[in-house]
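Hi R.,

Here's the chain you asked about this morning:
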Amino acid sequence: MLIEIMCDQFMDHGRPRGKIALHPGLNAVLGSESASNSIGKSTFLMIVDFAFGGKDYVNKMRDVQEAIGNHTICFAFRFADGVHYFSRSNVDSAVVQRCDAQYSPLPDGRLTLLEYCDFLKTHYQIAVPGLTFREAVGRSLRIYKRETLDEERPIHSVSREKAADAMSGLLKLFDLYAGLEEFVKRAEEAQESQTVFRKAQKFEFIQSTTKKEYANNKIRITELIAQAEELNRQASGNLLDLESFQAERLASLKGDLSLLKRQRTRLLSQKQVIEADRDWSKFQSETKFQRLLDFFPEVNLQHIKAIENFHIQLAKILQNEFSEAEEHIRAALALTDENIAQLEAEINQVPCQNSLSKAVLERYAALDREKHELDLANQNYVIAQELAENAKQSREELKERKNVQLSALQQKLNAEMARINDIISEGRKTAPNIEMKDKSYTFVTPKDGGTGTQYKSMIIFDLALLNLTCLPLIIHDSAALKHIEDISVEKILGLYAASPKQVFIALDKCGSYTAVAQKILRDTKVLQLGEGEGALFGRTWNTANIS
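And the predicted structure, written out as tokens:
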């Protein structure tokens, strides 16, 4: 438990206040009989919250931070393994420093706030899976400027928290949440699947289909099936055995085969031309030119021989070119024949390919492709509906299971609140009642909606939590107590003082309460504050400067 708090800025009429000792049960911070404001009662309660890992002392009490400046809060806890000393400054509040008994920092003693809260959770033996220390204690620390003073919503840790989350936190505190985890996980996964699918449709990775489009697609699919069957009948083939990609592929193959066959015809023609042209290069031999002399004695045979020699040389060149051209054509023909053979083999593997023209195949492919796209669109619609139904069913299962747990929790709370209320009112007044269902709850006192009664009911609620759970402390500021009738305050103080856990309160005008209440407050007082130099920091800063 928290056993002391100190700060070198705590002053009382010019003297350091020193260590403020704390104890089990009630720890009362008392104000003046005139109910003076801004003397530090709520500030000290917020500092207690600061010692328990809270952030609101720094974040929400800006006037204190500005007026006091940099300062460090020192505090100690006693647990089964001994006393642990710590300090935490308002400047670097995200760090908690381990200290020795004189509050000198220990080497390597820096803890993050998360590590420090885990330390408190372990030493307070809050062995509830999934529940952080601040989640455990934060709802019942009801201090001015914290968002926990709403007497009609006592479960909320902050005003913006959803009621469903607040109730889940309460279930965790009662260790009733473990049975819901599988249902929560299933619901979250189902919702995530639906969300991912919707996003894929939104960004057009998956086609989105409405209910009307789904119905129209079914009609169009029926029409496409009928057209494909008619086309199959006209073609006397087994078109219906083909998928659209097969039909498209077959049409493409036949088109390619036709081109290759035309190319082969052109190559054969070129080959024949080359073979014919090659024959003209065969010239007469020299012996045959001798016969010309018999008819033309005056002919210049040497000149003819020179021309013949030129033709022979030219023929040799052309022969080489013809041979190269013929070789290229033969290679092209061989490659073309090979490609034709491959295409014919692939075409032969498709059923009924011989009876199907390219035009028929292309028409069938278009019909089947459209049908496939519509089938896919409708399939996406069905998947979307199934995902939505699965998410809905998972939510319903979680809701049903959660309501069972909430009902059990509700019975425990209402029974304990009724018991506490009977002690406070001596059985004369109705007890507060909480009703919780899935995403909402109500907290009322039947037949009594008065302000004092509602605040009293909130205090009874916290006392029930303190008695029934691992909650180690509660804090009630004067705003939660001042509206309650004196006799009820006396009974409440008695319950505070009798608790084995720690209760911190702030209260003004103690002399106005019953004698019994005054005695309890005197016996449990840990801090007395007053105006001016009697304030927590030895001064106040809310007085206007008048010149």
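The mean pLDDT is 86.

Let me know if you need anything else.
M.
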